[in-house]
Amino acid sequence: MGLKIDSDVGRFRKIVRGRVRDELRRFMSRGEMIGRRGRDLVSIPLPRIDLPRFIHDPGGQQHVGQGEGKEGDVLAPAGGQDGGHGQAGNMPGEHILEVELTLDELAEIMGEELGLPRIEPRGRKNIEEVSSRYTGISTTGPESLRHFKRTYRQALKRQIATGTYDPARPIVVPIREDRRYRTFRRVPQPRANAVILYVMDVSGSMGDEQKEIVRIASLWIDTWLQSQYRGLEAVYVIHDAEAREVDRDTFFRTRESGGTVISSAYRTCLQVIAERFPPEDWNLYLFQFSDGDNWSQGATETCIELLRDRLLPQLNLFAYGQVESPYGSGQFLRDLEQPFADDERVILHAVEGKEGIPDAIRAFLATGR
Q1: 49 and 95 Cβ atoms separated by less than 8 Å
Q2: What confidence tens digit (pLDDT) does each residue in 233-274 have?
């Protein structure tokens, strides 16, 4: 009975994974898609899915075979319904099931649905090593991999089936045919680490909605890159007319009222890389989000020079996401298009609201860099 229930739960989890896959774009576009995030679990609330189970619910009424009764007692209200309160309705109730997926499972679904390639090895920064992962059970194998519980269970089943099991003297003796062994497969694991530098404009034209888009997008970027690298660190840089490194919470909560000088953020990133993340030891990713304003044409020329001559030679990928804002000009995206249109290390994308997040993620990560 226990094995049957395990099998049913396994099939149910496949249904849930299918539901997540079917509605992935909606989950990626909503801030409440992830209820909590532990060490390696992501919790996604799914509407209108409930775990199959048997329910015995007499509803507070006496039924046949229950308690004291006498001839003429009514066993249930007319029509089979108990006496509820409140107005009638014609809409179904909604059940919320909070399904937990590992980050690896979520990244796998995300990669399949968005068509994301694995990160390609490049030189000694991305040397892969092979690790063993236990994935199944076999009837043959070395004694060092014998699965005690599975072997005992198989022996117990055999003795019960053949009538040799004595409950009064419960001795279970496995024979050769009862033995079960763990099996494993070899999985490539990237040995190098990676760091993501997140840069966000927090000037007065970037409102709460724009920062929410950045928060959701960065979570999915983290999820994918964590599945590709053993170690992943994040650096958060905010800027208006000046830039500074901050923690994650400050990154998403800060809002300034000054102007915008993007080159200040680039200089801060260069300083962080020089002090803590040498490119020969780290895979470096820079994701910048802005509404496209910059202080002046001269400041934009400085940005292009810093990006072309100093940042790009050290980066695996530079991704610029321009978030729609009613107050931003959107000019910076156009300024970057001409000098970097043919550079495969540069991805430029306009994020059109929350619904545009999945397309932005695909654009940023589809190069496999």
Answers
A1: yes
A2: 889 999 988 899 999 888 878 766 667 889 999 999 999 999
Please tell me the pTM assigned to this model: 0.62
- Residues 240 and 228: their CA atoms lie apart, in Å, by 32
**Domains, the chain, ordered by start:** 2-52+95-114 (no CATH), 130-188 (no CATH), 191-365 (3.40.50.410)
pLDDT bucket at 123, cuts 50 / 70 / 90? very low
What is the C-alpha to C-alpha distance for residues 299 and 321, in angstroms, rounded to an integer?
19
Question: Which residues, including other chains, have CB under 8 Å from residue 322's CB and lie 6 or more apart?
Answer: 289, 290, 291, 292, 330, 332, 333, 348, 349, 350, 351
Residue 216: name the closest of 108, 85, 110, 127 by CA: 110
Q: CA 352, 314, 296 angle in degrees (round to 5)?
A: 50
Residue 126's φ and ψ, nearest 5 degrees, are -125, 30
Q: Which residues contact 199 (CB under 8 A, 6 or more apart)?
A: 237, 238, 239, 243, 265, 269, 286, 287, 288, 289
Q: CB-based contacts of 26: which residues, under 8 Å, 6+ apart? A: 33
Write the burial class of residue 12 (CB in 10 Å: 0-12 exposed, 13-18 middle, 19+ buried).
middle
Residue 243 is encoded by which pair of tokens? Answer: 């830039």
Q: CB-based burial of residue 90 (10 Å sphere; 0-12 exposed, 13-18 middle, 19+ buried)? A: exposed
Residue 99 sits at φ, ψ, to 5 deg, of: -100, 130
**Strand blocks (E) in the chain:** 41-47, 96-102, 128-138, 181-190, 193-201, 231-239, 243-246, 282-290, 317-323, 346-351
Alpha carbons 76 and 348: distance in angstroms, whole number: 67
